[in-house]
Amino acid sequence: MEEEKIEAAREPLLSSNQGSPRKNKYALGCGVLASMTSILMGYHVAVISGAQKYMQEDLGISNTQIEILSGIINLASLFGSLAASYTSDWIGRRATITIASAIFFVGSLVITFATNFVILMVGRFVTGIAVGYALMIAPVYTSEISPTSMRGLLSSLPEVFINSGILLSYVSNLAFSGFSVNISWRLMFGIAAIPPAFLACGILAMPESPRWLVMRGHLGEARRVLVKTSDSPEEADARLQDIKEVAGIPLDCNEDVVIVPRSEKNKENIWKEMFTDQSTPAVKRIIFTVIIVQFFQQASGTEAVVLYTPRVLAKAGLKSDTELLGATILVGLAKLGFILVATFTSDKLGRRLLFLLSAGGMVISYVALGFGLEIIDWTHEENFSWAAVVCILAVVAVVMSFSIGFGPLAWVYSSEILPLRLRGQGASLGTVMNRTMSGVVAVTFISLYEAITVAGSFFLFAGITAIGWVFIYFCLPETKGRSLEDIEMLFE
């Protein structure tokens, strides 16, 4: 019987492949609203890349302090992601998204009116907490609200909006660079305080996650949400039955409100299931996979490209602020464009193929970038134009490769392979690993390239990404077209 279940889990969900069902506009709208906090996250992470020069001139802060300011937002997000795992299970996914928006608003104002490094640190730390909230809750909510036919599309939305925020931050850097030094960087950060106020209103129109509603015993409300967010009534019924089974609720129960078994609400039991002998081999493999995928997403070094693009391009030969910030916008456009490619193809091509293409492309691009920078260093010629062009194209290729796979699909894959009972805590663990590595890359990149050169840094990232490609090839099963509740069987 157990073997039959495993074999059934290996077969894609047929109902999602029969014909081409119309996209569920209600589910799409919910996914878009839930992912809007990701725009703020991307904006705050990347805006410092163009603002740092003006902050240094205005407040007299050092390169080391810039490294700290760049990285603290990622390290602070650890606290946010852990807190979000509890609030999302305690007060719901929707309320947790509201909290993230409020924290973004406060952090933006603190940074805008900062007068010294300490206040800047406080503002970036507060914003980092909001980043942790957004990183954890947006993928969880979108995966739980999505019909099977759209799960890849909707679960990619947070990463699409993160990159939209990154692009907007680059545009902001260029737009406000013409103001006086003490005003320009404040405008770059201050404008980010406006969207959260409007986002809070939009969140009120969102339904709560049907999986959270079932875990709280609100079956009637969950049933109504599933009907709206499924491709057919039959799929809604099937999704509800799957969730009830995981929650320990009798499948023939048709009450609107029930009492969920206590063990499903007990956080201590959940942590024990993940990290003690109580856990099954499948659960251990899933948790390990989530953590390692998130490790490679950031250890591959793209955070260095996002945060320090102007510095890297300056090493490649670009000189003026307009050239540097204009080229940065080109990088942002490439990043966003290929995120959209991944978003609309992941449900057709599958996660595994895009992961492999992404990691392979990054390795090749990093090697090309490293050799281009080495040639410029060897020649010491400011007008060695063809090598500079190679470097610029290689930077664009790095972000394109990252965006077609590792960028969006690390979150999609992590959220969909986690069983419902472990999803909040498991997602927070993945986010902790992601933000830890992101912070490490951010706070060490300047020191790293001063020690082993910029080219050497990118050769190092190429080696790490190559190891990630091997891990993907041997350890990641395909999840395209499978129900969330059946995916656990893939790891048996």
UniProtKB/TrEMBL annotation:
Biased composition (Basic and acidic residues): 1-10
Membrane-topology annotation of the record: Multi-pass membrane protein
GO cellular component, one term: membrane
Gene3D superfamilies: MFS general substrate transporter like domains
Record domain Major facilitator superfamily (MFS) profile: where: 30-480
InterPro entries: MFS_dom (IPR020846), MFS_sugar_transport-like (IPR005828), MFS_trans_sf (IPR036259), Myo-inositol_Transporter (IPR050814), Sugar/inositol_transpt (IPR003663), Sugar_transporter_CS (IPR005829)
Segments forming a coiled coil: none
Main location: membrane
Region (Disordered): 1-21
Transmembrane segments: 26-48, 68-87, 99-119, 125-141, 153-171, 183-206, 286-309, 324-346, 353-373, 385-411, 432-452, 458-476
Family: Belongs to the major facilitator superfamily. Sugar transporter (TC 2.A.1.1) family.
Identification of the protein by name: Major facilitator superfamily (MFS) profile domain-containing protein
Organism the protein comes from: Rhynchospora breviuscula
